[in-house]
């Protein structure tokens, strides 16, 4: 072999050694890259693990959800909360929870399921919610229409008397017999205030109006509500109003060829010929605020009472039967309630026995309104003993 050939072989051997070393180094870099890849994935996994659990919220309903009325309105608002906050909340509900000791059992069970916010949607839950709240300070409780609060329990209500008054204005114009009828649920100030406000609205356009009342002593009992409505029609009432939860009153008026209103939600489809309008409650504005308070850590106890001004109360689907000037009058009242220029309970107003409860020009404050336990002049009968 020549010298040149030997040198060529030596070069070839050297290059082979370098290539092998380079290959070994390359393999080493690939093996070291795996931990680096794991490191870049770790923060993403940690972020996923740190995602907060949704706020669990439960609602206790006094009646079935159904397709109209008080509980239906609350459940619509619950759904609006879900739309507003998405996966930040998880809601559930229990329907037809009676006002009584069983309410406490249900509410305690909702706490046991891990709910950190609980809405009780009827007056009769008040004392039971207070007891459960005292035992569960980490849970926020919201009670509808009550007046007792605690450090972790607050109350909320809707000014339903505003819708009742606007309905009364229409009833006063539409009655031919000058006799109005109201089916009442439970004789508490909230309901008595609504009956009186309905009557005041009617008297504002028709001083000859009188109002008859039948009490069924339940919030939701369609057969009793229907019977009460029929007894009012038999007594000469030709326009019916209600403070009960079903559509039975409106349906009874429809069958009899008389007139009536929907209550708490739009009930127009239950009696299209009888329906003059529906006094509705939109709980969504308050529910969204209340849940937002908890999510943002701003929740604190207290009492809230919202109405037309806060888009919580309205009179909707006013019938074409109602004269245009009356619809315009209702719109003016609504605008006045919205901007504070109109007051429903403004003197002179007298009780059923003739005693003046508000002097000329005097405007009732909320303390006055919450304490109404008597009929105004023009309402017939006697207020039964409340709960």
Kindly list the characteristics that best describe this protein.
387 residues, globular, Rossmann fold, 11 helices, alpha/beta
Structure, described:
This protein is α/β, with parallel strands linked by helices and 387 residues long. It has two domains: 55-159 and 284-306, Response regulator (Rossmann fold), CATH 3.40.50; 160-280 and 308-370, Response regulator (Rossmann fold), CATH 3.40.50. Helix content is 44%, strand content 18%. It contains eleven helices and 14 strands. It has helices spanning 3-49, 70-85, 101-112, 126-135, 160-174, 189-203, 222-234, 248-256, 284-295, 324-339, 366-370; strands at residues 55-60, 89-94, 117-120, 140-144, 153-158, 179-184, 210-215, 239-242, 259-264, 275-281, 303-306, 313-316, 349-350, 356-358. The strands form three sheets. The protein has a six-stranded parallel sheet with strand order 2-1-3-4-5-11, sandwiched between helices. Strands 7-6-8-9-10-12 form a six-stranded mixed sheet, sandwiched between helices. β13 and β14 (356-358) form a beta hairpin. α3 (101-112) runs parallel beside α4 (126-135), α5 (160-174) runs parallel beside α6 and α7 (222-234) crosses α8 (248-256). It is globular. Mean pLDDT is 90; it is low at 1-42.
């Amino acid at each position: 072999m020549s010298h040149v050939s030997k040198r060529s072989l030596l070069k070839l051997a050297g290059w082979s050694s370098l290539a092998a070393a380079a290959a070994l180094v390359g393999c080493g870099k690939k093996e070291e890259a795996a931990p680096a890849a794991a490191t870049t994935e770790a923060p993403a996994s940690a972020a996923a693990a740190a995602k907060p659990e949704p706020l669990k919220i439960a609602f206790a309903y006094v009646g079935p959800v159904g397709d109209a009325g008080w509980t239906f309105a609350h459940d619509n608002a619950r759904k609006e909360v879900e739309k507003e906050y998405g996966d930040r909340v998880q809601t559930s509900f229990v329907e037809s929870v009676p006002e009584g000791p069983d309410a406490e059992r249900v509410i305690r069970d909702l706490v046991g399921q891990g709910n950190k916010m609980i809405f009780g949607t009827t007056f009769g839950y008040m004392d039971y919610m207070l007891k459960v709240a005292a035992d569960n300070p980490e849970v926020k409780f919201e009670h509808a229409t009550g007046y007792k609060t605690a450090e972790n329990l607050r109350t909320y209500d809707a000014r339903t008397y505003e819708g009742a008054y606007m309905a009364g204005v229409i009833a006063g114009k539409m009655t031919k017999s000058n006799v109005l009828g109201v089916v009442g649920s439970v004789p508490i100030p909230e309901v008595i205030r609504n009956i009186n406000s309905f009557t005041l609205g009617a008297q504002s356009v028709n001083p000859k109006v009188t109002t008859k009342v039948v009490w069924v002593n339940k919030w939701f009992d369609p057969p009793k509500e229907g019977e009460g409505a029929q007894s009012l029609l038999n007594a000469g009432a030709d326009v019916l109003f209600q403070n009960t939860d079903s559509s039975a009153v409106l349906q009874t008026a429809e069958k009899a060829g008389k007139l009536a209103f929907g209550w708490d939600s739009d009930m127009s489809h239950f009696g299209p010929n009888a329906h003059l309008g529906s006094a509705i409650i939109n709980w969504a504005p308050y529910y969204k605020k209340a849940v937002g308070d908890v999510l943002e850590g701003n929740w604190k106890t207290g009492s809230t009472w919202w109405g037309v001004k806060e888009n919580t109360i309205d009179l909707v689907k006013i019938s074409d039967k109602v004269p245009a000037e009356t619809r315009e009058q209702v719109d003016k009242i609504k605008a006045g309630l919205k901007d504070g220029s109109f007051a429903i309970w403004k003197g002179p107003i007298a009780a059923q026995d003739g005693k003046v409860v508000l002097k000329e020009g005097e405007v009732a404050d909320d303390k006055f309104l919450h304490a109404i336990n008597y009929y105004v002049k023009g309402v017939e009968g006697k207020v039964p003993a409340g709960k």
